[in-house]
Amino acid sequence: MKSAHLIRLGALSLLMLSAAPSLHASELFPALPHKTVGVQVKVQNFSAADAAQIKAAGFSFVRLGAWSDSLGDKAYQKQLGDAFAAAGSAGLPVLMTVRAIKPLSTDPATAGAAFASAVSSLERTYGSHLVAIEIWNEPDLDTYWPTGNFSTTFAPFMSAMCKALQDNPTTTPVIGFGFARPPNAGSASTVALNSILGAYPKCLSAISYHPYGMTATQIGNAQTFIQQNFHLPGVISEWGISALPSNGGPDGQAAKVAAFIADVKRLQIPLTSIYEWKNSDSGSNDREKNFGLQTSNGQPKPAEAAVRTQLESE
Question: Has residue 299 got a pLDDT over 90?
Answer without folding.
Answer: yes
